[in-house]
User: What shape does this take?
Amino acid sequence: MESIEISRRRFIGTLAAATTGVAVSGITPVFGNSRDTSDKLAILGGTPVRGNKKWQTWPQWDAEKFNPKMDEVMGNRVWSRSRKVAEFEKKWAEMHGSKHCLTTVNGTNALSAAWMQSNIGPGDEVVCSPYTFSASIFGILYKGAMPVFADIDPETFQIDPKQIRKKITPRTKGILPVHICGYPSDMPEIMKIAKEHNLFVVEDACQAHLAEIGGKRVGTFGNAGCFSFQASKNLPIGEGGGILTDDTEYFDRLYSYHNFGYASGSVSGQISSISALILANKIRMAEYQAVIGLCQLEKLEEQHKIRNENGAYLNEKLAAYPGITPVKLHKGATAASYYIYSMVYNQDKLDGLPRQRFIEALSAEGVPVGTGYPNDPLYGQPMMREVFKSDVYQKFYTADELDFEKYQQKNHCPSLIKTYGSALWIWNGGLMLGTKSDMDDIINAVDKIHNNITKLK
Assistant: This one.
């Protein structure tokens, strides 16, 4: 099989189309075609662009190098939190330029703990990004506070600071930005708003390992930054989470909270296990989790560099194709994690081809693509209705505030709903660690669909 790297001829064709604003009707070869992408589409019986090639497996594990380290910790029988956990926390904090890191059993507990040790409570409001998974807001609900959703920028998928401002009231006590898919939210502007209104900020950076704004890594802008180390994430442990903060007193309370409420640092003056001082939990990371994390840390920055090189390459090349616009980094963002490579689909620019048909065609060529989160906004999920029925919410909120239909209307986010219907997520763990030839396969698969689009109708 001949090479399917992008030919100079085809690149010039795509560049010309992008820079001259060529209108595409039927998508007959506007782009310089190549033998590789003029073939019959795989969904119609042709040969897939990827053929039998596999994407990089994920998570990755160098057994020869890492198994002895795991054998050591398993053999010494110190499996609960100890020196390895402390070592991982120190390295994760240093990697981000943060004073403190506290690890937890998973990212969900990291987010919950961060809010549990904030000063929000019943009657308070927290402005949240709506484009996220339900776990992002659990801690807010545990505290009896009210999530208020501000719409996103559909070009970046991130909470829109202008929309945050519209949701600020005298009851607002916090902001929850979510760096969804690994693209940074506009933290400088969000922190400006937080400072103006004295708001507590928890960054959900669970998908955004090492993403940066102006060289400063996300998770270090707010009062707390929370990460997930679940098996699919860019630093995979299997399960695990972490919280970054520069506030030592807050960190001491977090440490106490994750360890039965026992004394820690400024919470009674020293680490102790005599009695519980605060209502707490037990969400400590285990030693063998930390060893896996330490092993994964060895390659993380190198992998981050590759992901960003590949992300920039895809952004440049795919931008030339009408109907699939790469998600933008907001001004000031200097790196994404590219946990998920995301695009915005516009079927009007693809001869009316439905998004699902495009997904089926691209998947058939060997590119793992989907729609992302389903059309199920957090403010409309049954979970919220059940929370509103709880004793705490019944006691502290009015019947009008707990009217579920009114709550949904008040929190309706039009750009979020639009994004549910237009998002494309390309994800397969190690996909963004592939070679340039792997990235060319993605581009060529898109090119192949463009050149044969009328046959998909």
Q: What stands out?
A: The CA atoms of residues 36 and 289 lie 45 Å apart.
